[in-house]
Amino acid sequence: MKRFYREVETIAADGGFTLTLDGKPVRTPAKLPLVVPTQALAEAIAAEWAVQGEEVKPATMPLTQLASTSIDGVRGRLEAVAEASAVYGESELVCYRADEPAELVERQATLWNPLLDWAARRYDAHLLIATGIIHKPQPAGALKALRAAVDQLDEWHLTALQNTIGITGSLLVSLALIDRHITAEQAFDLAQLDENYQIEKWGEDWEAADRRAVQRADLAHTVRFLDLLR
């Protein structure tokens, strides 16, 4: 859409901070007030609007999108979003291992086992390792512990978790990122371990490279969103 405003400002609002376009408060796609919990996040969102040219391009406004998702898509659906996120623990990515080649088996153990150890310490969630792709049920206590961890998140952090799961396909990697136990780059490498191995052996086509670049950028935006919530 064409840019329809000149001035962008950040102001205090009920429940936090918002931004105005030529004095009018911004609303989400669902027409709800775009109010965020910290001034830092509001200012960063305002900056996204301020740098738009003649055309307003939502794809270049990741913080605006994440905040709007929190308000429109997560706040009123905390239980459903938490359930949809926690279910990834039942088929946790880092629990499923190759049986060959030995180099890949060793790499999975070296990089993924510490994450399982962290989950056991942090949440008392002791997950089982399986070889191959046949589903292996996880202990009910471990799944309950992971669900409890997800349930503790507010709409802002749950949005970040949901977004990260969509990129990584892993609940543990996503929780570790939300908890700031790992960086965005580490999260990407953990989730892409198998693919990275295949690329080392056979190379990478341009479509895969573009997709991975977008995923890296999305993770970086998610981490910035988390930082601005502090």
From TrEMBL:
Q: Per the UniProt entry, what is one GO biological process?
A: proton-transporting ATP synthase complex assembly
Gene3D superfamilies xref list? ATP12 ATPase, ATP12-like
**Transit peptide as UniProt keyword:** yes
Q: Which InterPro entries has this protein been placed in? A: ATP12_ATP_synth-F1-assembly, ATP12_ATP_synth-F1-assembly_N, ATP12_ortho_dom_sf
Pfam families on file: ATP12
Recite the UniProt keywords alphabetically: Chaperone, Transit peptide
**What is stated as this protein's family in its record?**
Belongs to the ATP12 family.
Q: What is this protein called?
A: ATPase
Q: Which organism is it from?
A: Niveispirillum cyanobacteriorum
